[in-house]
Amino acid sequence: MRIAYVLAPFFVVAVERQRNPDLAQKPVVVGGRHYERKPVFAASPACLKMGVKTGMSLRQAHYLCPEAVFLPTDQERYESVFEELLAVLDSFSPAVERDGLGAAYLDCEGLDLLFGKDEQLGQKIVDAVKENLGLAVRVAIGPTRFVVKTAARLPRESNPTIIPPYGGSRFLQNLSVDLLPLSDFSRQRLQTLGIRTIGQFAKLPSLELMEQFGADACTAHKMASGKDEQKVLCRKKTATLERSLALERSIETLGEFSSIAQKLLAYLVDQLRGDYLACELVTLYVELDDGTGKEASMWLREPTSSAGDLLCALQQMAARLRCENGIALVKVSLSALGAEASKQMGLFDGQRRRRAHLERAIDEIQERFGSDMHHGDTERRRGAGYEHHGGTETRRGTRLERSRRLQPARSPYTCRADTPDWVPLSTKLTVITGKDGKPAFVIRRGRKERARVCNNWRVEDGWWKENVSREYYRLITASGTIMVVYFERDDQGWYLEKIVD
Questions:
Q1: 7 lies in the same domain as 156
Q2: Domains in the chain: how many in total?
Q3: CA 212, CA 221: separation in Å to the nearest integer?
Q4: Alpha-carbon distance 223 to 3, whole Å?
Q5: Which of 43, 66, 68 shows the shortest CA–CA distance to 56?
Q6: How far apart are CA 354 and CA 194, in angstroms?
Q7: Is residue 17 in a domain?
Q8: How would you class 393 by CB atoms within 10 Å of its CB: exposed for 0-12, middle for 13-18, buried for 19 or more?
Q9: Are residues 19 and 128 in the same domain?
Q10: Is residue 397 in some structural domain?
Q11: Helix (H) or strand (E) run with residue 350 in it
Q12: How far is CA 483 from each of CA 233, 275, 446, rounded to the nearest angstrom?
């Protein structure tokens, strides 16, 4: 087993000095201003020599090193640069494991066929990081994780440091026992027993060590003996699904945008469901006719793979961007992906949940038995090959039809011919108001029911390029149905927006 350890010494300070070259020869403390009640996040070597330590208060650090430059912590910047460093390492090995900020393990097994011997591989890693990021790194390649980590952190002239396949214990034998992962109490006892080097510690019987010092000492004994068999664990990468579409003719209305977004989501939702994933973060990027770009992101209340939920989020973001010029390009990104997991159902989200579960069940059935499976008498009555949706015909089995074939029997939504029928659109409703102008009765499906107003609110806003002025009411009918209705001031009509199951 061959493992590499890549270390960017004083990574945080190096990033700050890269941003401000004037700090190159100055002592630097990162964590905040010297008068703030915050801990030291990182410090340069000159400050460490003066007694500054990570975690101590900034005021104490200023007392020990008053000439230091104190900088606020920019965690996002450090993480961004480190992700770029990991991306460079990904080009060398398929298994890269993060080990804190500024350090990582690489699985080097079999890489000699691509990059040559260990010395050549290590030098190529050093050169690649320097060329791409301008950062100096130390590289050690050896047989175990503990050996290479220790070698990279020791001050040595050679870079990279190469430890032979069976030379781990020899490399460690004269080093201090304090480098082993032991408790302070264990270190004190070892000092009392005269055990000061790793080589002396490795010669002790492992069973007696476990009895005297516990299981941690047994693990440390394996490390000291060069028998650490822990492999490199591939880190969990931040996956993102993206899809973009450059438009031949710019779009200016929400209806046109919804049609484009639906096409992009048809592909992305197929990928999500194919991998049994759910998305929690949706990002919309649009490029306008004048060449400028706008971007908006939205965290969903819960991870989802529902095309309807994702489209609603995109519509809200598009309205929020308020694009005055026409849109020439649309890009949709789905991130914060994770496996779909079971979750306690909410009290009022039954209809949406049932629809999502039904879509998932049909996908699994078609995946197992084929995409031409018929389901129920409804399918047999629809004729061969085509289905009718909101004034348009779609071929069965297409990716677009797959997202919109499921319309619940008791749905509060209606559809227009130019929109997919899983988009929630309001339907006309007959409402009888009381003397106060608020709904008193609703007539739905030929039945007149008394309704009680739970709460109401007003919306005055611009939706894409259309002004909206509505009076919303949440009602509960005599039969126990909860519904959201609104009065449209433009056409003086009542509409049903949704029914809450």
A1: yes
A2: 5
A3: 13
A4: 14
A5: 43
A6: 69
A7: yes
A8: exposed
A9: yes
A10: yes
A11: helix 350-369
A12: 51, 35, 17
pTM of this structure: 0.52
Residue 55 lies in a domain: yes
Dist. CA 410–CA 406, nearest whole Å:
12
C-alpha distances out from residue 399 to 270, 278, 369, 403, 409, Å: 7, 18, 17, 7, 22
Q: What is the mean pLDDT of each run of 10 residues along the chain (501 residues)?
A: 91 93 92 90 93 92 94 88 91 88 90 88 93 92 91 82 87 89 86 89 85 82 84 74 83 85 90 84 85 83 86 87 80 81 52 64 65 47 41 41 38 35 60 89 86 86 64 87 87 85 55
- How remote is the C-alpha of 96 from its chain's centroid? 18
Domain ranges, residue 89: 3-162
**With the C-alpha atoms ordered 215, 217, 220, 221, is the resulting torsion angle positive or negative?**
negative
Report the distance separating Cα 258 and Cα 262, nearest Å: 6
Separation of alpha carbons 20 and 97, rounded Å: 29
Same domain? For 105 and 199 the reply is: no
* Residues 443 and 399 placed together within one structural domain of the fold: no
**The sheet that has 42-43: what strands, in order across it?**
42-43, 28-30, 69-71
Give the separation between CA 128 and CA 135, rounded to whole angstroms: 10
Who's near 489: CB < 8 A, 6+ residues apart?
469, 470, 471
- Residue pair 281/268 in contact (Cβ under 8 Å)? The answer is no
Under the phi-then-psi rule, with left for phi > 0, alpha for psi from -120 to 50, and beta for the rest, what region is 194?
left
Question: Bridge-partner residues for 339, per DSSP?
Answer: 277
Taking the CA atoms of the chain, what radius of gyration do you get in angstroms?
32
Q: Shortest CA distance to 264 belongs to which of 288, 287, 241, 248?
A: 241
138, 162, 186 - which closes a domain: 162
Whole-angstrom distance between the N-terminal and C-terminal Cα of the chain? 58
